[in-house]
Design a protein that fits this description.
alpha/beta; Rossmann fold; binds NADP nicotinamide-adenine-dinucleotide phosphate
C-alpha cells in the first residue's frame, strides 16, 4: 500500500508542476500542503482553491498581496527565497519543479530539513553539486530524480553495488531524442528559428528545457546531473541518440548485461515514481502497447554540430564552479534566444566564451556559489550582441 504523504510542489504553474498536480488528482493518499510559483499568480490562486492548499510561496510582495486578496486569511503566504526554504520543511516530499538556478533554495532547504526531494530542477544540482553532497547526509534527506533519464537510471540501479561509485557498473547510458534538429548539417542549423527550436519531437516541456534539448545542452546538463546523483564519474557516462524516446536510459554492468527502463514519454510516470516510492502507483502512465509493435533505434550524437555536449564534459572535468558558470551562461543565452536577441547558432558559443572568464575556484559556500553565478551572468550579458 502506498504511504499517505504531505507533498509540496514548487514551480506548480510550469510543465512539471502541472503534471505533478495530475498525479495528485489521481492519488488521494497524498495531501498538497504547499505550492509556489513565479509570475503566473492567477493560475497559482486556482491551484490553491482546487486543492485547498494552506501555504503558498511567491517571489515578491506584489504577488503576495494578490494571493492574500484572492485567497483570504486562511492561506499563509511567504515571500522570496527564505519563504521557499520554509515551505520545503512542511512536507514529506518536495517536488522541485522550478526552472533554473532559482530552484537552489528549494533543493538545499529540502535536504537540510531531512525530507525527500523529488528533483526536476537539474540546474540547482549541477551548479551546487559539492554543496548538495554536503547536505545529502542529513538524516531523512533523499533525492529521487524526476528527470526521466535519471529516474530510469535510478530504477535500473536497484540491486547494484552501493553508491557512491557503483563499482559493478561499467557505464551509465543516457538516451537523447536528438531534439528537433537531429540530422541537420551546419548550413541548415544557421537558419533555424525560435518556433522550430520550441517544437520538440517527443516531449511537451517548458521553453527553457525545450531549447536546451535542441542544442543538446540538456544532455550535457544531464551528464553532470547523473554524475552528481549517482557518484559515477563522467568518463563512465555515455550519451546515445534514441529518437523514439521510449528507452529512457540504461545501465551497462561489468558483466556486459544492460538494463533499460522503457515507457512512452510521459513525465507523470517519473513524478509518480518519486512520490510513491518504494511502492509504485498503479496509474499506467506511459504504458506501452507491445502488441502493436514499434521500433527502437540508436545512433551516436553529432558532437561537431552540437558542441554543448563536449563543453559539458569539459566543465565536469574542470569541477569547482565551472558547471555553475556553464549553466548560468546557458540560462542567459537561452533567455536572449527566446527574446529574439541571439541566434540559435550563437547560444553555445556564448556559453563557451563566457567560460573563458572563469578562474578555477573550488566551491566553498552557498554565498560563494551565488557570487560565481552572478559573475557568470554578468560576463554572459556582456558577451551578448549589442
Ligand atoms: N518539463 C519537463 O518535461 C521536464 C523534464 C525533465 C526535467 N525538467 C526540469 O524541470 C524544471 C522545470 O521545467 P519546466 O519545463 O516545468 O519549466 P516551466 O514550464 O518553465 O516552469 C517553471 C516553473 O518555475 C517557476 N519559476 C520560474 N522562475 C521562478 C523564480 N524566480 N522563483 C520561483 N519560481 C519560479 C515558474 O513560475 P511561473 O510560471 O508562475 O512564472 C514555473 O512554475 C527544469 O529544471 C527542467 O530542466 C522538466
Amino acid at each position: 500500500m502506498v504511504q499517505p504523504r504531505r507533498v509540496a510542489v514548487m514551480g506548480v504553474t510550469g510543465s512539471i508542476g502541472r503534471q505533478s498536480l495530475d498525479v495528485l488528482r489521481r492519488s488521494p493518499q497524498f495531501e498538497l500542503v504547499a505550492v509556489s510559483a513565479g509570475r503566473r499568480v492567477e493560475e497559482l490562486v486556482s491551484v490553491v482553491r482546487e486543492f485547498r492548499v494552506p501555504r503558498v510561496g511567491v517571489p515578491d510582495d506584489v504577488s503576495a498581496t494578490r494571493v492574500r486578496d484572492e485567497c483570504g486569511d486562511a492561506v499563509e503566504v511567504v515571500v522570496g527565497d527564505e519563504g521557499l526554504a520554509e515551505l520545503s520543511a512542511d512536507a514529506d516530499v518536495v517536488v522541485n519543479a522550478v526552472v533554473g538556478f532559482a530552484g537552489l533554495p528549494v533543493t538545499l532547504a529540502t535536504l537540510l530539513a531531512g525530507r525527500r526531494l523529488a528533483l526536476a530542477n537539474k540546474e540547482s544540482l549541477i551548479a551546487a553539486a559539492p554543496l548538495v553532497e554536503g547536505v545529502r547526509s542529513t538524516p531523512g534527506a533523499e533525492i529521487w530524480p524526476v528527470d526521466s533519464e535519471h529516474c530510469a537510471l535510478h530504477q535500473c540501479l536497484v540491486g547494484s553495488s552501493p553508491a557512491p561509485r557503483h563499482p559493478d557498473v561499467e557505464r551509465l547510458w543516457i538516451t537523447a531524442s536528438g531534439g528537433p534538429f537531429r540530422g541537420y548539417d551546419a548550413t541548415q542549423l544557421d537558419g533555424v528559428s525560435r518556433d522550430e527550436a520550441l517544437r520538440h519531437p517527443t516531449w511537451q516541456m517548458g521553453p527553457k528545457i525545450t531549447v536546451d534539448s535542441s542544442t543538446l545542452m540538456n544532455k550535457g546538463l544531464e551528464v553532470l546531473e547523473a554524475s552528481a546523483l549517482f557518484g559515477v564519474e563522467v568518463e563512465r557516462i555515455g550519451v546515445v541518440v534514441h529518437p523514439q524516446s521510449i528507452v529512457h536510459s540504461m545501465v551497462e554492468y561489468v558483466d556486459g548485461s544492460v538494463l533499460a527502463q522503457l515507457s512512452a514519454p510521459d513525465m507523470r510516470l517519473a513524478i509518480a515514481y518519486c512520490l510513491g516510492a518504494p511502492e509504485r502507483l498503479d496509474h499506467h502512465w506511459g504504458q506501452l502497447d507491445f502488441s502493436s509493435g514499434f521500433r527502437l533505434d540508436f545512433e551516436p550524437p553529432d558532437r561537431v554540430n552540437f558542441p554543448a555536449l563536449d563543453l559539458a564534459y569539459a566543465c565536469a572535468r574542470r569541477g569547482g564552479a565551472a558547471p555553475a558558470w556553464m549553466s548560468a551562461a546557458n540560462e542567459v543565452a537561452v533567455e536572449a534566444f527566446l527574446d529574439g536577441r541571439l541566434a540559435w547558432r550563437e547560444i553555445v558559443p556564448l556559453v563557451a566564451s563566457t567560460l573563458e572568464s572563469y578562474d578555477d575556484s573550488p566551491l566553498e559556500s552557498v554565498a560563494h556559489l551565488r557570487d560565481e553565478d552572478a559573475r557568470a551572468r554578468a560576463v554572459a550579458h556582456g558577451n551578448l550582441p549589442q
